[in-house]
Amino acid sequence: MNIINSKSGGSNYRWYVLTLAALTFTFTVATQQICMTVLFKEIAEDLGLNLVQVGMIWGIPSFAALFIVVVGGLLADRYGAKRVIAVACILGGLAGALRGTAGDFTSLAIITFFFGLTIWVVPSSVFKTTATWFKGRQLVVANGVVSAGMGLGFTVGSMISATMISPLLGGWENVLFLYGGISIVVGLLWVFTVREAEQPGSAGLGSGVPLRQSISRVFPNKAIWLLGLTLLGYSACMQGMMGYLPTYLRDMGWTIASADGTMATFNALSTLGAIPLALLANKIGLSKRVLFPVLVITVAGVALLPMVSFAMVWVLMAILGVSRDGFMAVSLTMSTETEGVGVVYAGTAMGLTQTILNVGPIISPPLGNSLAEANAGYPFFLWAGFGLLALVLFFFVKETGWRRK
């Protein structure tokens, strides 16, 4: 029996589900991933990893996503998001903790792959949840809230994992054990406190849209593919930069606290900016008009990072960070708002979009890190190029905002 009184799907209950969805992004997806960027120095020293291997480990979860995100979306549409999220959180916590038992590159890579298989089921199911519980102009705001939860996890994970928790617990392994345990607790909350919301055309739990119908309706949709390719370029740009910057700054002579602090600032402002950007897109009613300037600023900011002074790095990271989670929230809302999708096929649409976008983070970290052997600043130019690709592709994406007509 559910602990929370969910009778008639009241407003309070909706907000409880939304809060839990945001915390799922915080602890299961974001914190367990971003902690690696600030722990990589320690992990590399213990396991004897080089910079390219570090980039490969950072990109492996995105590689795993190619095999599972669409499946997760299809399962969410067929069997309900609650069940999928609960199982993914528990398995993601177990796999995330097991990374702490790795003794070399191979074992860490294998475990990280299985970790990626579990956590990348979560996003499409979370966005399916928001599309089910929130309608119309409330949806982009709800997606802003869950994206802020993702930003909170990125902020906390990058701020305290290496400087506070690792020394306190005795090493990076125990940091991963801790975060994995928290993810399992979140999964149990989904099991015992959340009921599955009914969706249009459903006759009850487990009687959602047939898998073949979801595939035939969503996969041929050109708008979804264009949006996914745009997000591929954007995520390649941001993921490469995020994984490399702390190590780059430390090699440039920055202290650990200062190097990690730039990422904490980036993620903190990303958290704070997610909801305002979503509200702005909602007020204007034209998502592309809000997102185009973000892409332009991203391309310029990433390209400038290796060419500016100490103080300007902080400024650029603040500028890049303030729109990151908001950009993803509004973009992924466009996926569910695309003609022919709606709440019924939201999980499948999210799954396909995120499968496409995850190609970027697979190739960009190792490719960019390999350029560092020639010049430490070259990776940033490559990642800015991915951002430019996103800018060009986004021009062809159809507007989905409520004022589009």
Please characterize this protein's 3D structure.
The chain is globular, with a radius of gyration of 20 Å. The longest helix has about 35 residues, at about 10-45. Helices cover about 80% and strands about 0% of the residues. It has one domain (about 10-195, about 210-395): Growth Hormone, Chain: A, CATH 1.20.1250. It has helices spanning about 10-45, 50-80, 80-100, 105-120, 120-135, 140-170, 170-195, 210-220, 220-250, 255-285, 285-305, 310-320, 325-335, 345-355, 360-370, 380-395. The chain is built from 16 helices and no strands.
User: What is the residue-mean pLDDT, rounded to a whole number?
Assistant: 86
CATH second-level architecture: Up-down Bundle
* Structural classification: mainly alpha
> What is the CATH topology classification name?
Growth Hormone, Chain: A
Order of helices and strands: HHHHHHHHHHHHHHHH
Low-confidence stretches: 1-9, 201-207
Chain oligomer state: single chain
* Number of H/I helices: 16
Radius of gyration over C-alpha positions, nearest whole angstrom: 20 Å
Q: Report the end-to-end length measured between terminal Cα atoms.
A: 45 Å
The helicity comes to over 70%
Number of strands: 0
Largest sheet: none
What is the assigned CATH homologous superfamily? MFS general substrate transporter like domains
Indicate the CATH class: Mainly Alpha
Apparent shape: globular
Beta-strand percent range:
under 5%
Instruction: Supply the number of structural domains.
Output: 1
